UniProtKB/TrEMBL annotation:
Pyridoxamine kinase/Phosphomethylpyrimidine kinase domain residues: 11-254
Family per similarity comment: Belongs to the ThiD family.
Protein known as: Hydroxymethylpyrimidine/phosphomethylpyrimidine kinase
Example of a GO MF term: hydroxymethylpyrimidine kinase activity
Gene3D superfamilies recorded: 3.40.1190.20
UniProt organism field: Filifactor villosus
Underlying gene: thiD
Domain of life: Bacteria
Pathway: Cofactor biosynthesis; thiamine diphosphate biosynthesis; 4-amino-2-methyl-5-diphosphomethylpyrimidine from 5-amino-1-(5-phospho-D-ribosyl)imidazole: step 2/3; Cofactor biosynthesis; thiamine diphosphate biosynthesis; 4-amino-2-methyl-5-diphosphomethylpyrimidine from 5-amino-1-(5-phospho-D-ribosyl)imidazole: step 3/3
Record keywords: Kinase, Thiamine biosynthesis, Transferase
Catalytically driven reaction(s): 4-amino-2-methyl-5-(phosphooxymethyl)pyrimidine + ATP = 4-amino-2-methyl-5-(diphosphooxymethyl)pyrimidine + ADP; 4-amino-5-hydroxymethyl-2-methylpyrimidine + ATP = 4-amino-2-methyl-5-(phosphooxymethyl)pyrimidine + ADP + H(+)
EC identifiers of the protein: 2.7.1.49, 2.7.4.7
Enzyme class: transferase
SUPFAM superfamilies linked: Ribokinase-like (SSF53613)
Length: 266
């Protein structure tokens, strides 16, 4: 069985973070492992509190995983602090981790900041050179590239700039575009557009975590990058379309729609 490690924060509501990652990886037929970087008190209405895990504990979790069950791929989500980012980067380099997908979680779905401002430089300098793919949304792309984004051409420009700076492929997610959501992959092979479909469903809590976990799982199975992304986008679309409708605010996806659906995907 293929194995995938998620390095991320815990979401008490179960819709994002570690919980969403494990659900996604499980339905993709891989064995999921976790390193928890932060504990959050949050629900569908927003983030109430974030408490980072001690750096030594993060390091010990990484050692425990890599010294026993070596992952075939790694998904990275919320890291939060410069110290945790440095530790994760050091350990991934030490163990020669492969197929690393980074979802640079800077803000929650509700808009709450999830990373310290001074940690961004550490992320770019130490972690980005190790990853195979980074999957920022529009606001995270603006933060990392310094480019203002209003449409597809801006996404392409920002992606090229990030690729030139880091040498890392970038999938810029277009879910916040006013037009139909189109994701832009910028890599050494060129630019590829992945067109999407907008659903009349506000319950999108955890879409970024879910997409990156799905991509990492597909890479672990040996699929090429374009196929991994295309199949991951299809999975997320179906998980949104299943309309789980939990909670008062912006609810989670139905990660388990393959086992049970509240609404047939059309």
């Amino acid at each position: 069985m293929k194995t995938v490690l998620t390095i991320a924060g815990s979401d008490s509501s179960g819709g994002a973070g570690i919980q969403a990652d494990i659900k996604t990886m499980t339905v993709h037929g891989v064995y999921a492992m976790s390193v928890i970087t932060a504990i959050t008190a949050q629900n569908t209405m927003g983030v109430i509190r974030v408490e980072p895990v001690a750096v030594k504990m993060v390091a010990d979790q990484l050692d425990a995983v890599f010294q026993d069950i070596v992952p075939d791929a790694v998904k990275i989500g919320m890291l939060g602090t410069a110290e945790i980012i440095h530790t994760v980067a050091y350990k991934l380099r030490e163990y020669g981790a492969k197929h690393i997908v980074l979802d640079p979680v800077a803000f929650s779905t509700s808009g709450s900041p999830l990373i310290e401002e001074e940690a961004i430089e550490t992320l770019v300098r130490e972690l980005l050179p190790l990853v195979e793919l980074i999957t920022p949304n529009l606001s995270e792309t603006e933060l990392l590239s310094g480019e203002k984004i209003t449409g597809l051409e801006d996404m392409k420009k920002a992606g090229k700039r990030m690729l030139e700076r880091t040498g890392v492929s970038v999938l810029i997610k277009g879910g916040h575009l006013e037009e139909e959501p189109t994701d832009v992959l910028v890599s050494e092979e060129g630019i590829v557009l992945f067109e999407g479909r907008r659903f009349n469903n506000p319950d999108t809590h955890g879409t970024g975590c879910t997409l990156s976990s799905s991509i990492a799982s597909n890479l672990a199975h040996g699929k090429d990058m374009k196929t991994a992304i295309r199949e991951a986008k299809a999975y997320v679309a179906r998980a949104i379309s299943a309309e789980l409708h939990l909670g008062i605010g912006r609810g989670p996806l139905n990660h388990m729609y393959r086992s049970f659906c509240t609404k047939r995907f059309k």
